[in-house]
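Troubleshooting log. The previous run stalled partway through. Resubmitting the same two chains, unchanged.
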Amino acid sequence: MEQKVLVVDHEKCTGCRQCELVCSVFHHGVSNPSLSRINVIKWENVGFYFPMLCQHCEEAACMSVCPKGAIYRDEELNRVMVNYDLCIGCKMCVTACPFGAMGINVKEKKVIKCDYCDGDPKCVAFCETKAVDYIDAERANLKKKREAVLKYSELMRRFVG
Amino acid sequence: MNAISIIPDLCSGCESCEIVCSLSHEESFSSLLSRIQIKKWGEIGVYIPIVCQHCEDAPCINICPTKARIRLEESGAVITDEKWCVGCKSCIYACPFSAPIIHPKKGKTMTCDLCRGKPLCVEVCTTGALSFTTDGRLSFQRKRASIKQSLQTLKSIP
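Second attempt completed without errors. Output:
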């Protein structure tokens, strides 16, 4: 089965934060960006916006650091999930994640993270500019490859003829 | 959701957190009386500060037979009520980090109480290995740092 991944192209992000709203509405039923699993980190003075979300690492730091083994890999959707029956809320995963992708639901006192919306990410469905996209893992780097090939072929044309 | 967050990579093992903790709580300079403990592997240069994480569904509260482990309402800290603690050490076994410390003289357990919302260990930590976060702001700090780091790496590639 082909594995799908969520890829982020920060150059396309306009910082509208629509993804944050739909994420929190889908998971919690309220439009509250602090309950969102995706967060647009902004540097307004330079106009730089970067949507941050869980990378579902293969050797996940959150998974290794969890003292209760509450974080597991769901092979079917290739995602990292939290088992809330085992979670004791020690927040070690929040500290350990190098991307800060593990969020905290302050009201319910639980850690929250991206779960790919069970295979149909709502942030992708609502992103106008497709700054976040849910595509096959093999196609994730296709754009970069194409750019590299174009550059290479141009060089070849210039020097080899 | 208050907690002291630890970045072990930054810890130099200087023990100032232990000293200030023991000074403020027990009025002595002894790392044995500190509620934060640095575990050291000196030969490989690994230092990991261990302190109570004030878990939301804390195993120590669930296991304590005398209900001596309690959560303070205002700071969210999980502490031992010395009046009820019988020193059975169940909380140490239940804790995945072995964070509770046995007081050498009283024989009762003690853990971090977040210094009434202003942890002194965080204030004296010079390397930034310890930080105090409230309201889940921690993950946002990590997000910002991670983006900055990846941008620097990208820029260094010609």
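Takeaways: Chain A has five helices and eight strands. Chain A has a mean pLDDT of 90.
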